[in-house]
Queue: 4 jobs
Job 1
Amino acid sequence: MIKLVALVRRKASLSKTAFADYWVNVHAPLAAAIPGMRGYRINIAGDAGGMPPADYDGSAEIWFDSREAMDAGLASPENDIAGKDTENFLDHLEFLVVDEHVILPKSVA
């Protein structure tokens, strides 16, 4: 399993509500069509409380079975469509390819 994490910053012209609505209801269905994806999660930043605000408005996590599956999905026409759509609601997008280490919940042996 390989995971792609996207860190995103919304267009300054969009309110936080409009950004979240577009991401979840317009962009997510386009991205979910990328072949080979095994999981897709969107994380929208909330009120940071007493912590300093983050430089990002959210993140997305996308799982693939392998690097080859990820490369094939990212080379697909569906990814081209989703990638082009990011221009409608994002000012900044960066990706991390990560190895996940689950700390909690602990697995039961």
Job 2
Amino acid sequence: MENLKKLIPIALLALFSSCNNSDDGNYQEIATYPNVTATFGSKIDLNNLYNYANQTVPAYITKNNAVGSTITNAGATLGRVLFYDKNLSSNNTISCASCHLQSNAFGDTAVASIGVNGTTGRHSMRLINNRFGNEGKYFWNERAANLETQSTMPIKDHNEMGYSGANGDQSITDLITKLSAIGYYKELFKFVYGSEEITEARMQNALSQFVRSIQSFDSKYDIGRAQVANDATPFPNFTQQENNGKNIFLTPPVFDATGTRTSGGFGCAGCHAAPEFDIDPNSKNNGIIGTIAGGGIDITNTKAPSLRDLVKADGSLNGPLMHTGVITSLQTAIGHYGTINIAPGNTNLDPRLMPGGVGQKLNVTAPEVNAVIAFLKTLTGTAVYTDPKWSSPF
């Protein structure tokens, strides 16, 4: 009996460790995970997890649309596996990462991303810094109330990943049965949640943790912003052109009765406020109302990704812009806002783009455009493109 009493605390400690061996390293021992080790090798070490939970966020970044949601190292690790696993598609050819590539700031260079039964209806949105903003809804038309809901909607889409439960597709219940038979998921779900059970809610929880962890705050802009009191102050590390571009971006325009700018800047910050450069949740559509398919109009697209990492370090775009992918250069993007034409049927145009009820005319000049482009390029970071914690574990 005395020996049994001694063994009970040891057994309880082992049980506690198997359910909580995630983040802080204060547990006594960790179970072996042969399937995880065999599948991922050194890319995933459950004894030494990557830091997702306690990444440095600059003090001037204050917006957060994920209040109440927690990122853990263990949960984001499982999310990383799910994000890159082609087993989540009906024919094992497509993963979340197929349309959101790390090399392109988690966006796609294709106008329409390829799925298992066709292509996406809208251009795939970049995922950089998606939690650092006020807008809590997801997709271009904000049809997902939160990131958790959004995370499995592509999986349940007939064209994208094929587990729609309609059109001859299997359902997400069938996907869960499929994943439950995979050894590394047995181990990972138990590692994170304390049991091998896979549910859609657990998948959503893990995927959203990984996506929320993707952040970029090591840009030239961030180096400068850390040295000044506010964005209106010239940044000491910027060129004169970059500081001019910043001022033009931040300063609202002054219009006459015809909607023509007479002074001021471009007012980009009215919808994309610094320092997060996220989209204002009150924004309506930006005047681009076409569709990838080419027929009809779509005036419901009112969300946009952060303007951070629009381009790579070499200045090339991380894929085309807008929900139609119709914009293929920063110059063209600025030009679009330079002259807004109110298209017939567009009853949802943002009022900030039609002063006095007419489409704005910014009368942009080449030096102004070049300055704003120079400034937008300062928003590009470096680590997010190469950090292994956001890379494929396979």
Job 3
Amino acid sequence: MTTHPRSALSGIKVLDLSRVLAGPWCTQMLADLGADVVKVERPLAGDDTRQWGPPFLRDDDGEVTQQASYYTSCNRNKRSITIDMATPGGQQLIRRMAAEADVLVENFKVGGLRQYGLDYESLREINPRLVYCSVTGFGQTGPYAERAGYDLMVQAMSGLMSITGHADGEPGGGPLKVGVAVIDVLTGLYAANAVQAALHARNATGEGQHIDMALLDVAMAIQCNQASGYLASGKAPTRAGNQHPSLTPYQDFPSADGNVLLAIGNDGQFARFCSAVDHPEWSADERFATNRNRVANRQALLDLMTPVMKTRTTGEWVALFEDKAVPCGPINTLADAFEDPQVKARGLRIDLPRWGDAPAPDHVSSIPGVANPIRMSGTPVTYRNASPALGQHTDEVLLEMGFGAEEIARLKAEKIV
């Protein structure tokens, strides 16, 4: 496989033994940055998310296929090879791949790969330079280490759901999960950072290392200001809907035709807001002159603001504040967001071709997706191809490894690949 000559991770080989979201998000990030990522999938079944639908992709004739769009969200720029790692031949094949890899990413249960001789200690013996990243729900140590961990469970256990949603007693009150599997995604991002740091360290030491990533660790870490506030005060924060615990006004308001969001982060912005809505006396009021006082007198301020915010449409408010450096915006649907002129100008929707000829029955030549947000001037993110069909590159990868046509045929006949 050829990669973009100016890609940041060009020449780095990644063996991807992960599935679902956190691990694949990590390896997709590495692939976007130019690494050659080979994804190992189960024969016939593949990654679990290939079946996580609807929605499913449509083929070139507009017919619904058997591949869920979930899979395509986190597996672009990769090659797919099918290997049955439960067989001795499959284990030997993966060990041979690991011997030549720079990075291995896996998200099996703790100890799950040891029985196959594919754990870090075993593979380090054949490739001391290997950066081996394990992604689990609760990490390699601790009383929960052997538990399976899922994003929703970890959102609940970490306290994130206790600060997400409307307060008890309000309409729709109660704990809520975030609308996407945010812990999985952020664990993938942390893992990609860790992998690149380990590769940099390897340049100095010549040795790889084991990276232990846990969803629970990430969920605790990303609560940043809320967690720090609890540790400083001893008081656990509670749900406050779209309000900010340390800023006001920083929330949504009903407008004449829907809802509008204000994100006022300092006293200057508040003063400009007050002037624009013809209530300069609010910013002069001692109760509201500083953010600290506004938070202390939050309800009194909201009682004044809410009727005023209902007097104009969302679009009118956005237009009014646009040249006044007052952060204000609509609450879009995804459909609205993809039609937003800024989103279009930044090219955040991408349509990628399938990598060569996908095997039947998956005749999908182009797959839509969301662009990588990283913009680098010298070594830009590259988009080579959309997510692969199951096992699409099995022959290609085996040929690169030195297997001949007869050997590949034997591996297939023995159901190793």
Job 4
Amino acid sequence: MAIILIATLGCKKTIKGETQIYPEPDPVGTYAKGADVSWVTEMEAVGQKFFNSAGVQQDLFTILKDKGINTIRLRVWVNPTTGYNNTADVLAKAKRAKAANMRVLIDFHYSDSWADPAQQNKPAAWANQDFTTLKASVRSHTVAVLTALKAENIIPEWVQVGNETNDGMLWNDGKASVSMKNFAELIQAGYEGVKSVNPASKVVVHISNGFDNSLFRWIFDGLKANGAKWDVVGMSLYPTAADWSAKNTQCLANMNDMVARYGSEVMICEVGMPVADAVACRDFIKDIMAKNKSLANNKGLGVFYWEPQSYNSWSGYKLGAFDDSGKPTVAMDAFLP
């Protein structure tokens, strides 16, 4: 189904008095077409360059914006050994997003490195804290990062409290299969931290495998039963060229259930597919965006590609959307108007 976007036009008077037609800026609250580009500063530091589709070297944010991306997602680590993804690095990238008139999603991992379904390790500085202190650390870290952003007039529209918390976070204290109550209290600590700095920021709880309804019901039923609050259900979806259509159908059913069961908004926080399957990836993204937009009462908020700018198997990652010459593949055309 073709989707036609009509730009809203406004008028203003120039110094000479002529009426000039100009496009209104995209208002906050419209659909998020996003990219997580947390690797960008690390890539640039070793000389990686980025090129538009015509082969002209440009700043990555410019290239992405020209492809329809209007929102940037940035992961936050507590005290990473390399410094990348710490508060200062996140702030530098968020400033670039703001300068490009892009919105921001902040993704707290509550770890010194990767947090995902296979690992949810405590930051070294929190390793020996009792549970009451651990909750306070989650809140204070959340507040500190968001306050640093706010000092630069950057108010994230969305904030993830945890990353792919399929079995909770901050193991073993917050492991959901061990203590859903502890996990819920940690989520609540993050939620309260976000709202204390920016009440309008929407809090996201993010789970992988967006096609797995039983997993999502287990997590969100458990959080609800234990008093945790959230605004948005976040999902990851990494299908293959062979199964994306079936996975998208399952994901739609899950998204509709999240809306009906909890009244939640839904965001696809991460998508990706092997760079060699760029055409299939484009079709997959266009389809999942259409499905996300179809949710009742405009509950579908957006879709984010995870590290599309990674190329030449940067850090061993092969699911980017830039080719080996550093140019966007056709997968990125899915985000164009």
